[in-house]
Amino acid sequence: MNLHALLLEAQELGEPVRVGLIGAGKFGSMFLAQARRTPGIHVVGIADLSEGRARQSCRDTGWPDEQLAARTPGDAISSGMTWCGQDAMALITQDGMNVIIDATGHPAAGIRHARAAFAHGLHVIMVNVEADVLAGPLLAEEANRAGVVYSMAYGDQPALIAEQVDWARAIGLDVVCAGKGTKYRPIYHRSTPDTVWSHYGLSPERAAASGMNPQMFNSFLDGTKSAIEMAAVSNACRLTPERKGLAFPPASVDELSTLLRPRAVGGLLDTDGTVEVVSCETHEGQPVPNDLRWGVYVTFRAPDEYVRNCFSDYGLVTDPSGDYAALWRPYHLIGLELGVSVASAALRGEATGSANGFRGDVVATAKRALKAGETLDGEGGFTVYGKLRRADDSLMDGCLPLGLAHGVRLRHDMAEDAVLTYDDVEIDESDPTVAYRREMENVFRTRNSAD
Predict the structure, then answer these.
(1) What pLDDT digit, counting tens, does each position of 426-437 carry?
(2) Which domains does the chain have, with CATH numbers?
(3) What global pTM score does this model have?
(4) Helix H or strand E segment including 207
């Protein structure tokens, strides 16, 4: 609990944490809103495919135009100003940088940026959960060899879940389940960018006026983003997904400790040490009172009667036996909280969550009956959604990772809800992103089988 003191010290020494942000969308903009008022952090540069968007994000979050006057990242470091441009590698290769944040949301870009940053001795905060799930376990090992930190993004739900899991284990509690809340109904798996706004109660015109991306918002709704985030949590927290994937049970915060315990004692889980996402509405569409739509949770078990009595003495909400309890956080502030990761990586040399194995994967699953020759359009699109699977099962079946299910053509007809495999698509094995993912599969196929 000394990050602010460390940042103040860095500021006083004239050695602020020098940060490069790649991607100036919503998450990046929220970081910018707080970074400008955080002592000890200097945003050296912001790279975005649209320089105009990067500059507008700064204006929208209160940055004065004169702060954006730097001509190059080097000029920004010497002057204390900030550079805006399109060239992400100009930031990564600039001498004097400390941390790179990838907030692009594009798996191939995230992997490319992270590996370049490692090669230049920079810490990486991977906001891009899509890249982390596609190749994070291998990226984390590459970062370790380079002597730098590869970290989840604090403020996003996976890192906040990892924090709660760490809290429970650090005080000697067994973690039973960890996860988050969301809005879910089974019919949402069929949602497309054309239908998404009706499920949110918005008109397409209203959404467009607010600059809302229908494919991105659809990935939140159709179960894909939940699968991605729970795979990241599994890989960072030594938790194993249920074989059936995510069930999205409706649950209030008061029901977490009763529902998210093993089936053998009256809960919904097949086993301890897993992940699950709870819904803020029933599968028929009725609201759940006292829901956890925006939050995160962990359930844990008392190891003995003394601790069980402590749960009762201090007012924890437990299951009927008193053995199982839950801790939850009702909200998350995504990019507004990202400075915690930046400071932790640069000043402590610690990640706010990072993959330490390959336990969870997200596989491409047909949203509808698909025809041979169709081109898949990836996360949140019209053709596939992401389903959480155990990594070992995914490897054994040759499943197609969702992160590679974009711009590839189908070889075969696929039934609705069928899980796609590499053999079902025409894929370029020489593509650097595909090759890196294949390398990760080979590494962990051998390692997981040895374990």
Answers:
(1) 999 999 999 999
(2) 3-156+336-348 (3.40.50.720), 158-184+223-331 (3.30.360), 360-450 (3.90.1210.10)
(3) 0.95
(4) helix 204-209
